[in-house]
Amino acid sequence: MRSSSSLRTLPLSLKVSEAFALLRMHLKRRQLDVANYPYDALMTEYSSILERHGRRSVDGQRVLEIGFGARPFRLAWLFNRGIDVTGVDLDMPLIKWTPRNMLHIARKSGWMRASKSSLRYFLTDIKEWRFLADLFRKEHGADFRFPADRLVVTDASTDEFWDRAGKFGFIYSEDVFEHIPKENLKNLVKRMSVALSPDGLAVIRPTVFTGITGGHHLEWYAHKVSERDAPRSTEPWEHLRQNRRPANTFLNGMTRRDYVELFTPHFEILENRAMHPDLGREHMTDAIRAELSAYGDDELFSNTTLFVLAPR
Known about the structure:
38% of the residues lie in helices and 15% in strands. By secondary structure, the chain is an alpha/beta fold. The chain has one domain (12-311): Rossmann fold (3-Layer(aba) Sandwich). Strands 3-2-1-4-5-7-6 form a seven-stranded mixed beta sheet, with helices on both faces. The protein is globular. The two termini are 26 Å apart. The model has no long low-confidence stretch (mean pLDDT 90).
């Protein structure tokens, strides 16, 4: 499976420009306070989803995160809260900077990924990991340990991974499925359904391609959509229209309907809900709607969509 960290087809100048823009955005938004780290609230949300569908809470479950990403804060927090969680991701995160770790990332994902990881590590990640440790100690009165042994770096769509993974009571994935090729997702979803216990659930929350945020362009990230007067070089739903500046990440282009068709053979879909159903509505004009007439509101305002799945 390909890494979503960078696209070889884009010119280097565009990759560098976007990398610095993303870094500036992280630095601007990185406010180290409790409100920006709602991992206890996320744990409560997962338990609430399980319980409203007649399952046990996330406590005591064996849990899998598909796609822990470059900064596996969520997995580390859940682990320190006592959750038996394991994560799988195609790319190795840079948790501690060493020449050996840098070389490993460069060999696996390329020097662009290694360089971005290194820069982000020194500018933001060190401070953020320390903040999380201090916050956890303050909130829960215990030391915060990073569970390196719980991170599996491999392709989650392979039979080899699932043959070794065992059974889980709960599987979740946040903003990851859109970066996995459709052909790989077919086997991943099939094996995921088998790996879940009969009363287990999966919570899969992708960013649907047809939403205004679906192109993953920095100018249309969810927190920037409402900035009506912000200077932009692209238009609303640019990725469905002119697509003049594609994001430097792989996107499978899947619609909300595509996800339903992907999940249905192996799962009963208990919930299919857009998290912010009106996101981008203020940018929808008659002209844009006519141009995108092939898509209904259920697609154009999907964006981050929650799928709660029970194995058949």
